[in-house]
């Protein structure tokens, strides 16, 4: 069907019940810019300096074209086009079958279950379509919401990297959680392909 609006159509990539994951597009620039510079998000982010429009534009252009080692998708609620957050697989390594998962939900939409739904959708995709074997999740030990969200989706704490981050006067451990495809398939009553 022809799209006569100036605004490019949204391309839904993964359909869920509570949220859909869609491709990013140029018009997401200002939503993303305000998300990554949001003071509440900066508190749990590794980035400290302002992320400028020009930097974010370059980042967005790169990710719209697509990259081998990263996949970024916008999180939307059905029948709405504005993204309420962003989810990604990064450091995708096809040789070892691993990747890291990152997610940011706009603070006004947190605590409503959108995070775990989006995480389950992308790990299902990673294990059943990208043939990854293991997904890692790295977070500040102080970021309880992040740890709860990961655990709700079956991630298990694997390691603590001592005093890895400095926030104000505090040194904070990095926590790494992970989920293996075999456990995800068992938890979801799915069968492993035997070649
Ligand atoms: C971590 C995050 C993705 C979780 O997504 P979410 O949609 O908020 O997930 P949930 O709704 O299941 O909330 C997870 C838990 O944190 C609590 N929570 C999350 N945000 C909250 C908020 N703003 N206020 C109060 N409680 C909150 C929820 O109550 C829930 O705990 P519960 O199940 O025991 O009630 C989201 O909070 C977020 O984007 N945080 C900032 C970025 C971040 O930390 N990313 C993860 C690092 S990779």
List the helices and strands and how they pair.
Blueprint: E1 12-15, E2 20-22, H1 29-37, H2 39-42, H3 53-65, E3 71-76, E4 85-93, E5 98-105, H4 114-128, E6 134-140, H5 144-152, E7 156-167, E8 170-180, H6 181-187
Parallel strand pairs: 5-6
Antiparallel strand pairs: 1-2, 2-3, 3-4, 4-5, 6-8, 7-8
Helix pairs in contact: 1-3
The structure holds coenzyme A.
Coenzyme A is lined by residues 41, 44, 102-105, 107, 110-116, 139, 143, 145-146, 148-149, 152.
In short:
This is N-acetyltransferase domain-containing protein. Residues 19-182 form the N-acetyltransferase domain. This protein is of the alpha+beta class.
Structure in words:
The chain is α+β, with helices and mostly antiparallel strands. The protein has a single domain (12-187), classed as Gcn5-related N-acetyltransferase (GNAT) (Aminopeptidase), CATH 3.40.630.30. The chain is built from six helices and eight strands. The chain has an eight-stranded mixed β-sheet. α1 (29-37) packs across α3. It is globular and about 45 Å long. InterPro entries: Acyl_CoA_acyltransferase, GNAT_dom. This is N-acetyltransferase domain-containing protein. It comes from Candidatus Liptonbacteria bacterium CG11_big_fil_rev_8_21_14_0_20_35_14.
